[in-house]
Amino acid sequence: MVDILHQVGVAAPLGDVYRAVATPEGVAGWWSIDTTGKAEVGGQLAVRFGADGGFDLEIIELDPAGRVRWRVVGGPDEWIGTEVNWRFDQRGTYTNVDFTHAGWREPSELMHECSTKWAIFLMSLKELVETGRGRPAPDDVQIGDGH
User: Model-level pTM greater than 0.85?
Assistant: First the structure.
């Protein structure tokens, strides 16, 4: 198994960062404007990207002290069964965000592209929490043909 790993510091309280990841409204502010669902363990988030499809994420952990975990249950075959894990750690005026997209079967071309896009969306999360405005899809930075 192979994992995507990223870390970013956000100049904001942990609670603000947590809400941006733990709620559909928060996720819509940095990942995709077309995000729906319920912020509860056992619930699902539906994150859509127009004609490019999207993802269905089962919420498996919500801990306001610093952790969110999703299991991918719908989307591209390579994503199914992977987990997206978030850890937040307040350090002074910054909240460190440790991000892992775990359980890829192999380092495929899609995984390489997703690693870059996750980094872009993490910067969008940082912008959202720090300034009140992120760059969710469809206004995200494009890195290739339609992505």
Answer: yes
